[in-house]
Amino acid sequence: MIAPIREASTLAAVLDVDRTREDLLAAFRRAGVAGTGRPSVARVHFRRKAPIVIQYTLLDERGLPSAQLHGELLAGPEAALRHAETESVRLRKSRRAQARREEKEPVVAVPGLALCIRAAGRDANLPGLRLLHDRDALHDFVASLAGPGAADVASVRLRAHRLGKRAVLQIDAGPARRFFVRLA
């Protein structure tokens, strides 16, 4: 079935990163991603009964990826503001713990573009992403996999993230201990 996109003109605007560069960079900074590079659209995901997801990559001066962010295209400015507020509250809940209470805006609304921006690794539908943001949770998780000694030197890195669907984490717990964790 082929259906027209209601937000076609708005979608065209958020995909035109040259025209919206300053708005996007300001939103990226508010979402906790520093950088003055060039935003680039990596992927666009169309979902049934859910906002269109735009995956942005922030490119550094050499054209290499320096950060990944997700944008959600909503029906209008008010919807973007409501969605950003609701998602920020969800990310602060103790079960998910992907944002500190004092953190002002884990999900940022860009009302002029009807867009919400968040850094990759912040997804209330994937509570396991807490390992990226909570050192104690990472320590406990690695200790259960590899023992307490390995947990002391553990580091975690986000390898892939599709907003609301899945993510892959790489956990290094010492010289010869590397784990990949799929969250779905």
Provide structural commentary.
The protein has a five-stranded antiparallel beta sheet with strand order 1-2-3-5-4. It has a three-stranded antiparallel beta sheet with strand order 6-7-8, with no helix packed on it. By secondary structure, the chain is an alpha+beta fold. The relative contact order is 0.13. It is globular. The two termini are about 25 Å apart. The chain has helices at about 10-15, 20-30, 75-90, 130-135, 135-145, 150, and strands at about 40-45, 50-60, 65-75, 105-110, 115-120, 155-160, 165-170, 180-184. Helices cover about 30% and strands about 30% of the residues. A hairpin with a 5-residue loop joins strand 7 (about 165-170) and strand 8.
Q: Could you say which structural class the secondary elements and strand pairing correspond to?
A: alpha+beta
The unreliable regions are none
Q: Helical segment tally?
A: 6
Strand order of the largest sheet: 1-2-3-5-4
- What is the chain-wise order of helices and strands? HHEEEHEEHHHEEE
Strand content: 25-35%
Helix percent band? 25-40%
Largest sheet: 5 strands, antiparallel
Outline the fold blueprint.
Blueprint: H1 8-15, H2 21-30, E1 38-45, E2 52-59, E3 65-73, H3 77-92, E4 107-110, E5 115-119, H4 130-133, H5 135-146, H6 148-151, E6 155-162, E7 166-172, E8 178-183
Antiparallel strand pairs: 1-2, 2-3, 3-5, 4-5, 6-7, 7-8
